[in-house]
């Protein structure tokens, strides 16, 4: 069983020397970066090395590769863990036996936020991009916010930074309920598409968590007018100050005139005035994300035209349609999409810029429960939006294997088996992808597990096949 956050856990008045178990992820590394900036001694561990770990080491963090009890030094005052860890983790167990404060990463983030005016971005999809858009615009507007995002901002090269302004912007994780911990001033809800039902148990419980999150917002709720789940949440809110955004005619910020030929262009109508924008990233879903970010900014009191101009400067985040290389005209991208809705959005965005080329999806199902629940939906969107699909085996993450649940659950549900292959061996998958790829094609890895690690194998296979 993995570690579940206890929202009642008291946060120490001083964290002292902090040890992070699983420090390499964008969220954990972002929090660690800010604590180092505040003068805390930071140590940590993770299962593998990464660019995030290298950056933290340059800032002075001491980080071990592999989890072992000896990684937890005698002088550690506080231990921070991620919900992806199993409860038998030796560092976690040693911390408990010593009686040390053990905080879920959301508690550590709450300690950093204390006393700041918080913008929390939540939703089943679009959180990282929406957070990045808000941060990029606030910096352009001179607000200098602090932030912790779930992905690296391309322009800044970091997932977190401390600013001198009063605002703090965070990507708030709904997967385990920890977004209810924060003292939020402005809550943005991008959508409430059912997910994480392994934690919540039902769609109604999932949606109720968003109701609770929004009703705790002290100043403002910004919520989608188009997403069915968000509409149901909005109908249940007690919070009286609500701004809606989307393409619905009654939306406070109405999105319209969307053009998806290349980087997406669109207009937003707000208080009787139309504002036109063109983003640096593709896809209709990013126009929707921009409308939500715009609604937050005008809700905070910023000038509408200047806010939209600031959003236009956003150039993306890591693992969101991120180009890793091109071999003989075949481009290899990576995307974090791990839910059918996200896969459809990522691939439809790619379709707007691939031109005459084809799209080859390399899909890694994430968690056994999600694969079991959505195998049919994954097959449908992959078959609709990709020309060819390679399905890898399931990345279990926090879950134990479930008998019979493999990537084949997805591939077997394709209507036309000629355009899909289930290949559990990554080298076989890379070689197969290289054989079917043609100049002009886009290869896109999809998943929030470790599928990005196959990218070097894909590029190598393309070099051998096409070089």
UniProtKB/TrEMBL annotation:
Pfam families noted in UniProt: Mur_ligase, Mur_ligase_C, Mur_ligase_M
Catalytic activity: UDP-N-acetyl-alpha-D-muramate + L-alanine + ATP = UDP-N-acetyl-alpha-D-muramoyl-L-alanine + ADP + phosphate + H(+)
Domain of life: Bacteria
Keyword Nucleotide-binding applies: yes
Main EC class the enzyme belongs to: ligase
EC number(s) recorded for this UniProt protein: 6.3.2.8
Residues given in the record as ATP binding sites: 123-129
Domain Mur ligase N-terminal catalytic: 18-116
Localisation per UniProt entry: Cytoplasm
Pathway(s) this gene product operates in, as recorded in its UniProt entry: Cell wall biogenesis; peptidoglycan biosynthesis
Sequence ranges assigned to domain Mur ligase C-terminal in this UniProt record: 319-449
Keyword entries, A-Z: ATP-binding, Cell cycle, Cell division, Cell shape, Cell wall biogenesis/degradation, Cytoplasm, Ligase, Nucleotide-binding, Peptidoglycan synthesis
Residue ranges annotated for the Mur ligase central domain, each copy included: 121-296
Key word Nucleotidyltransferase present: no
Function: Cell wall formation.
Family: Belongs to the MurCDEF family.
Protein name per the record: UDP-N-acetylmuramate--L-alanine ligase
Species: Agromyces salentinus
Gene: murC
């Amino acid at each position: 069983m993995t570690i579940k956050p206890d929202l009642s856990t008291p946060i120490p008045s001083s964290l002292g020397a902090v040890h992070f178990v699983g420090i390499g992820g964008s969220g954990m590394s972002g929090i660690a970066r800010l604590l180092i900036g505040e003068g805390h001694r930071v140590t940590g561990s993770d299962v593998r090395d990464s660019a995030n770990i290298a950056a933290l080491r340059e800032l002075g963090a001491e980080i071990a590769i592999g989890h072992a009890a000896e990684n937890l030094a005698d002088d550690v005052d506080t231990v921070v863990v991620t919900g992806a860890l199993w409860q038998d983790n030796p560092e976690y167990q040693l911390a408990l036996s010593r009686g040390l404060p053990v905080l879920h990463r959301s508690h550590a983030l709450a300690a950093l936020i204390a006393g700041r005016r918080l913008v929390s971005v939540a939703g089943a999809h679009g959180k990282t991009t929406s957070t990045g858009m808000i941060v990029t615009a606030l910096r352009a507007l001179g607000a200098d916010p602090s932030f912790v995002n779930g992905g690296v901002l391309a322009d800044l090269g970091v997932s977190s930074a401390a600013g001198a302004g009063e605002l703090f912007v965070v990507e708030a994780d709904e997967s385990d309920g920890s977004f209810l911990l924060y003292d939020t001033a402005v809550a943005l809800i991008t959508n409430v598409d059912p997910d994480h039902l392994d934690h919540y148990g039902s769609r109604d419980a999932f949606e109720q968590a968003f109701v609770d999150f929004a009703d705790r917002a002290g100043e403002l709720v910004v919520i989608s007018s188009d997403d069915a789940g968000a509409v149901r949440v909005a109908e249940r809110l007690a919070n009286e100050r609500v701004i809606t955004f989307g393409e619905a005619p009654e939306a406070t910020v109405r999105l319209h005139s969307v053009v998806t030929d290349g980087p997406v262009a669109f207009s937003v109508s707000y208080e009787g005035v139309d504002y036109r924008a063109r983003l640096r990233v593709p896809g209709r879903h990013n126009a929707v994300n921009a409308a939500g970010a715009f609604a937050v900014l005008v809700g905070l009191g910023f000038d509408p035209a200047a806010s939209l101009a600031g959003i236009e400067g956003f150039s993306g985040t890591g693992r969101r349609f991120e180009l890793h290389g091109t071999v003989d005209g075949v481009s290899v991208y990576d995307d974090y999409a791990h839910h059918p809705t996200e896969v459809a959005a990522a691939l439809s965005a790619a379709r707007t810029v691939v031109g005459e080329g084809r799209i080859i999806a390399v899909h890694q199902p994430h968690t056994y429960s999600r694969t079991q629940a959505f195998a049919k939906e994954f097959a449908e969107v992959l078959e609709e939006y990709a020309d060819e699909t390679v399905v890898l085996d399931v990345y279990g993450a926090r879950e134990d294997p479930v008998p019979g649940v493999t990537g084949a659950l997805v591939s077997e549900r394709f209507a036309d088996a000629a355009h899909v292959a289930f290949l559990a061996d990554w080298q076989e998958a890379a070689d197969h992808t290289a054989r079917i790829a043609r100049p002009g094609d886009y290869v896109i890895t999809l998943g929030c597990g470790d599928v990005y690690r196959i990218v070097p194998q894909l590029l190598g296979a393309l070099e051998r096949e096409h070089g």
